[in-house]
Amino acid sequence: KLERVAIGKNCFMGAKSETQFNPNGRFCLKECSKLRVLKIGCMSFSDYSLCEMDSLACLEVIEMGELGEESDSFFHASLELKNLPKLQSLLFGDQAFCNCTRIVFESPFMA
User: Rounded to an integer, what distance in angstroms lies between the CA atom of residue 107 and that of residue 60?
Assistant: First the structure.
């Protein structure tokens, strides 16, 4: 059973610059009942349009990029976090979700 996911720097990016984006690029993480930690490196998914996490009963930590470092992770993406009852920590590096137009936090969340 998967408990940790770590995605390195510069992964899953097709655009050559931060001004380009993929309207069909979607990162969806759902129903991984044992997942506790998700870490995503700087610049990863920078051209994606959606980051969605739902029904992750054990997820405690989400890190995208690093504090004090230009991240650009999910630069153009909207963010949806739903049904994450054990979430304790969210860390977004500089310019993560910079052009985000929609954020959803839905219960049960951080219960």
Answer: 15
pLDDT-derived band at 1 (thresholds 50, 70, 90) equals confident
pTM for this model (two decimals)? 0.89
Which residue has 């976090």 as its token pair?
Answer: 81
pLDDT, residue 107, reads 75
Residue among 61, 44, 22 at smallest CA distance from 95: 44
Q: How far apart are CA 22 and CA 7, in angstroms?
A: 19
Residue 49's SS3 state is coil
Q: Cis check for the bond before 108: say yes or no (omega within 30 of 0).
A: yes
Reference 19, options 88, 95, 87, 89; nearest CA is 95
